[in-house]
């Protein structure tokens, strides 16, 4: 089983601690990825957002910087908002990253959990589903080593086009979903790896989606493909320390998001329910987190688990310690 981390380069103010600048936060992200490789982890992911409270609007650039500082760790977007991107340019960016990193790049394509990128790049939210369907189809055509003849609604047609540069292997493309059965079925029918974002509730409720995915793979005539989970969490030397250090930034970030979307603020009782063995938060000692990851792995038939510590902006040294614990104490137990 692969273990790794994801980040959106969050830059929230927490209590009396001001938000870091975008440059400071991005430099911390690079250092955290280097620490993840040093700790023996398998994958590091950078997500795409176009908001003031996230610094990573260009994951391929951040990942390319990380590629120059690392040798082994897999580098993935987490995710690329394909619906508002140009598939040609996105393919070129990640093909270039794959060549620079000696075959370590992956592209996780998603529809996006925020909507800022749609007006920013001139797309209509009314076309939300059609945009993703069309652009995914083109992206998959582009990674095939053949001239592409293609036309659609949302970009100019291509005629006998081979987009450069070409990779030395087919560029890995994952489908990242938040719980939509249609998206899960699409990934299976296309034979693409599946990444599940589990940021609330109970991970066990995703088991029917995993079963749907396996049925769709079979229906599409495809062999088994990897399944990954992305989940929030934090590891410290004691449970009390983990809660004390993680709760305030996590609650601040999730409460802010809740106010945007009509949810209530995060409360200590909700936090503890999410931190329980059946909940979606992976917070505690290495032993506690390892046990919980292993349980979710067995429940959902996982091949990869990606921990997202900096939901709210944590101090850089705390994130580095979590990475160390994940690689050196959690990973050996899970494996």
TrEMBL record:
<keyword id="KW-0560">Oxidoreductase</keyword>
<feature type="domain" description="Luciferase-like">
    <location>
        <begin position="15"/>
        <end position="299"/>
    </location>
</feature>
<dbReference type="InterPro" id="IPR036661">
    <property type="entry name" value="Luciferase-like_sf"/>
</dbReference>
<keyword id="KW-0503">Monooxygenase</keyword>
<protein>
    <submittedName>
        <fullName>Atu2307/SP_0267 family LLM class monooxygenase</fullName>
        <ecNumber>1.-.-.-</ecNumber>
    </submittedName>
</protein>
<dbReference type="InterPro" id="IPR022290">
    <property type="entry name" value="LLM_Atu2307-like"/>
</dbReference>
<dbReference type="InterPro" id="IPR011251">
    <property type="entry name" value="Luciferase-like_dom"/>
</dbReference>
<dbReference type="InterPro" id="IPR050766">
    <property type="entry name" value="Bact_Lucif_Oxidored"/>
</dbReference>
<dbReference type="Pfam" id="PF00296">
    <property type="entry name" value="Bac_luciferase"/>
</dbReference>
<dbReference type="GO" id="GO:0004497">
    <property type="term" value="F:monooxygenase activity"/>
</dbReference>
